């Protein structure tokens, strides 16, 4: 009879560390915290806020006309009197003669697959030749619709075929995309928000564009109305639930029909003057987060989370955090699982909260004693309320990953079900399977290929390698730093979260792996 396995316990001799096996658990109890290192395509909290503000304020490029920024040609200088030529002296070649740096070369799909061994995953890679401004460009949410994966980058939305990465369609936009919802409608429509100009300063995130992700056809377009500071569009958050788009702009929120762009209703404000909507989460349910009791004394502020009927705007239930705490991220809307943050220490003091029927508190989970970091050790990138890499909630458990470890906490009891430590690895839960088991992406790193592993109750004893990525893909995959992930039908799609517009720093746009015979 097999012995019962306990999380974080030392495995039996047949499972203890051997060369090439990094998946043996260590002793029971809180793990030794690994050295904190930059391991994600996201930037730390403070840096991210600066980057995002710059991205929000930044537009396109200046046009140079006749030697002036956007002006007319300079007047010609008067002709000079001819003088005898000076004796020739050696001089540096003109600047135009200095060769430009060579763009970084991206390996092709064929080159990566040529290096794979039997049993390893097949791969495709996208080398996007789009000419980008010479700065960091944000890549937005991944949508999988039909047999395509779709993503917005800079001034276009592009669909790639899942089977081979070939571009299926692309929708160009007048200016850079500044916001996308996590979920499309059930019939594959989405609304992206782009800026009102390409100017470097003074632009707004206020242009709505509906796109049918199944056909690549652009539908209706409209501009968000802005009347003052309460509904400004410097920063906008969106979510889709059913056929309804919820938009938070400034301190107000409204709902629109995705099908035709009709404004349906203003999302009601709780305690006017005291609570203001600040974000939305979509999918099977529509949740609205509000910031309340805003003031100099952060110990008195709190968050209010509400479920809204997307068709009518009726409030189904309310959940209020304790004073001095705020809603961080929504990990799942069905069941409702979220994080809360101490406003006095939003980086170090956080919890996972599961809600039951009617928004009632079900369990509170503190994953910090086992060494887990917020959002898989990536912090808060400053993006929407549903973007939390390294943490995934299923029906039965919440799965928490990060640098060197991954584990699962039961949503009913709040207890750790299983945990695995793997020094040097970065582990990202992808989805829950069979109770509290999970598929986990192990990001590639120097000296180690990436892949997908299944873990369950019993931790390291249950390890099963589901997919092993080829060694030939390691540099390309590692450069993406697991920025954004999508998993569907045995295939994983990986992109960076930020790409550089400099040719010499260019990396692949997207890479995907699947079994040889899916």
From TrEMBL:
<dbReference type="InterPro" id="IPR015943">
    <property type="entry name" value="WD40/YVTN_repeat-like_dom_sf"/>
</dbReference>
<dbReference type="Pfam" id="PF13360">
    <property type="entry name" value="PQQ_2"/>
</dbReference>
<feature type="compositionally biased region" description="Low complexity">
    <location>
        <begin position="73"/>
        <end position="83"/>
    </location>
</feature>
<keyword id="KW-1133">Transmembrane helix</keyword>
<keyword id="KW-0472">Membrane</keyword>
<dbReference type="InterPro" id="IPR011047">
    <property type="entry name" value="Quinoprotein_ADH-like_sf"/>
</dbReference>
<feature type="transmembrane region" description="Helical">
    <location>
        <begin position="45"/>
        <end position="64"/>
    </location>
</feature>
<feature type="compositionally biased region" description="Pro residues">
    <location>
        <begin position="84"/>
        <end position="93"/>
    </location>
</feature>
<feature type="domain" description="Pyrrolo-quinoline quinone repeat">
    <location>
        <begin position="140"/>
        <end position="268"/>
    </location>
</feature>
<protein>
    <submittedName>
        <fullName>PQQ-binding-like beta-propeller repeat protein</fullName>
    </submittedName>
</protein>
<feature type="region of interest" description="Disordered">
    <location>
        <begin position="72"/>
        <end position="121"/>
    </location>
</feature>
<feature type="compositionally biased region" description="Pro residues">
    <location>
        <begin position="1"/>
        <end position="11"/>
    </location>
</feature>
<keyword id="KW-0812">Transmembrane</keyword>
<dbReference type="InterPro" id="IPR002372">
    <property type="entry name" value="PQQ_rpt_dom"/>
</dbReference>
<feature type="region of interest" description="Disordered">
    <location>
        <begin position="1"/>
        <end position="38"/>
    </location>
</feature>
